[in-house]
Design brief:
mainly alpha; MetI-like fold; 26 helices; about 75% helix
């Protein structure tokens, strides 16, 4: 067929994609604002906001949320920055192992970590408190995880990896010439760090602290597990409680809007911090950062890192294993107390297990596949500026990062429980939630991959008569294969970790594993929880290992390192 009469499907396909993104993000947010401004009786007004901002029942959770989030941001930065420096800039032994252990804490769902710390540090039955009482004869517990400091500590354990990644990457990018120049001019190591290294990496530390702050502010699982038994609410648990009987959707929407606005503002601040350029290298290339010799302190530094990593990895995992293989987690372990009862109950007697596993794997695979495909096409359109309005498409693909999971859950619930499209009670509504939440991570990963591929390769294909879609399929896709695999992995792991939106959208037949674990925690069945939690971790680590192997064969960066 002559080129003049060849119909190119690219433009209508890309336009349809843009419309889909608008509906995916705009519809739930529209209904959220409609309900927030709708008072009792259907009148339009700000009564819901007035109640949320003046009633102590809502102000106290807001203040508690801010206090916890601030504590988490400071604690996560204080822990992650030194570890990032040790791993990236010193000759500390086994830096790869430390990075892998931090990755393990990253893929561990925060709600599962909270349950593990329940097993370890509950005031009466916690393993650590039982050991403390046996050793000292004290009556009072050493730790009380059901408290505001306990909640901040647990959240920090699973948010500090975000700070670590930003700090370590920033340290890796500092040219060696800057520090070498300071040394040549007589600067001591401490002076060089104070005048050169710290100012250059400070924006990354502050940006990481903001990420930790946002994570703490928007999490549902950890506060629900540790705060509500302690007798206080955070904003996420308060929003969830407003959907319990009798439901108050207007107040829930009004409580969700400030959370959304604060998230947007803080993300803008983070973007400005990461967008700062503290140096410019003339000539394009620069030397790799030099490693600082720690001498006799090398092994002490490694021991300090491993001591810190006991808190998010070693102790919680040990607690889950102990609870899985014993009937009473707080009792001393012995061969006589070992049992497979919990495994038998979970996999052969508990009716929800198989359906929850199936739901989770179906949702994880579908979300990862559809999300990676969407992100692939959107990243191509934005990096190549292939259509008019590509900046709007870029905004739509990154906008969901500003929507907390609980807020999105409220918006989706309000959108799809009414005609013309009733999705509540099906897996479709959860799929929409996971796609919306995880799309930005996949998009950013693939956007970086496309920027590394020169557009001249595609232009050569088009000169030979290929359409954009054909060039994308035959030329570009094989070159960004490792980025596509990493994006798929990130989305799948995100689905496994997600509870905040799922808790608003599940029904009896659509529960994922995260919701089943939360329900079991309500009944106190720690053995069954531990078995399901270990199964979740095994699935996640198996996916990470498989993806790393696939990326290795594709010549890409391992997902664990990329994270």
């Amino acid at each position: 067929m002559p080129a003049a009469f060849r119909f190119d499907l690219s433009r209508p396909l890309f336009a349809a994609l843009a419309l889909f993104l608008c509906a995916l993000i705009g519809l739930p947010l529209s209904w959220l604002f409609v309900h927030a401004f709708t008072e009792r009786g259907g009148a339009i007004g700000i009564g819901n906001f007035a109640t949320v901002l003046t009633d102590p029942d809502y102000l106290e959770p807001l203040l508690a949320t801010l206090a916890i989030a601030l504590s988490v941001g400071i604690l996560a930065a204080a822990v992650a920055a030194p570890i990032g420096w040790l791993v990236a800039r010193t000759d500390m032994p086994l830096p790869g192992m430390v990075r892998s252990l931090i990755m393990a804490s990253f893929v561990t769902p925060p709600f599962l970590g909270a349950i593990a710390w329940e097993i370890l540090a509950a005031p009466n039955s916690g393993i650590l408190n039982r050991i403390w009482r046996d050793w000292t004869g004290a009556e009072d517990p050493l730790f009380n995880i059901y408290s505001m400091p306990g909640l901040a500590f647990v959240i920090a354990c699973y948010t500090f990896p975000f700070v670590f990644v930003l700090v370590a990457n920033a340290l890796d990018r500092i040219p060696a010439e800057l520090e070498d120049a300071s040394s040549i001019l007589g600067g001591r190591a401490f002076d060089t760090a104070r005048r050169i290294t710290i100012p250059l990496v400070l924006p990354a530390i502050l940006a990481g602290a903001l990420v930790a702050f946002l994570q703490a502010m928007t999490l549902f699982g950890s506060p629900a597990i540790l705060a509500m038994p302690a007798g206080f609410h955070t904003m996420t648990t308060k929003i969830w409680s407003l959907f319990q009987y009798p439901p108050k959707p207007g107040l829930a929407a009004a409580a969700a809007v400030p959370l959304l606005l604060v998230t947007i503002v803080l993300l803008q601040v983070q973007r400005r911090l990461l967008g700062r350029r503290g140096y410019a290298v003339v000539g394009g290339k620069y030397g790799r950062p030099r490693r600082i010799a720690l001498g006799a302190w090398r092994w002490a530094a490694l021991a300090a890192c491993l001591l810190v990593l006991m808190l998010p990895v070693f102790l919680p995992y040990a607690a889950l294993f102990k609870a899985a293989f014993t009937r009473v987690p707080s009792e001393p372990i012995s061969l006589a107390r070992l049992t497979l009862h919990n495994f038998n109950f979970v996999f052969f007697e508990f009716s929800q297990t198989h359906q929850a596993l199936r739901n989770t794997l179906v949702l994880g695979a579908a979300s990862a596949t559809i999300g990676a495909a969407l992100a692939f096409i959107i990243a191509y359109l934005t990096t190549r500026q292939a259509i008019a309005g590509h900046r709007i498409l870029n905004f739509l693909a990154t906008a969901p990062i500003a929507i907390p999971g609980i807020v999105l859950g409220v918006g989706l619930f309000l959108s799809y429980t009414r005609p013309p499209l009733v999705l509540y009670g099906t897996l479709w509504i959860l799929l929409l939630a996971y796609l919306t939440i995880e799309l930005p991570a996949a998009y950013q990963q693939l956007q970086s991959a496309f920027r590394a591929v020169h557009p001249e390769l595609e232009e050569a294909s088009r000169i030979l008569g290929a359409t954009r879609l054909r060039a994308l399929r035959d030329v570009t896709a094989p070159l960004v294969r490792s980025g596509l695999i990493a994006a798929w992995c990130f989305v799948f792991i995100g689905v496994m970790r997600e509870l905040s939106a799922a808790i608003m959208l599940f029904t009896a037949n659509t529960k994922p594993i995260s919701v089943v674990i939360y329900d079991l925690n309500e009944s106190g069945d720690l053995g069954a929880i531990s078995v399901l939690g270990l199964a979740m971790l095994l699935i996640t680590f198996a996916i990470v290992l498989l993806v790393n192997r696939l990326q290795g064969s594709a010549g890409g960066q391992p997902a664990a390192a990329a994270g």
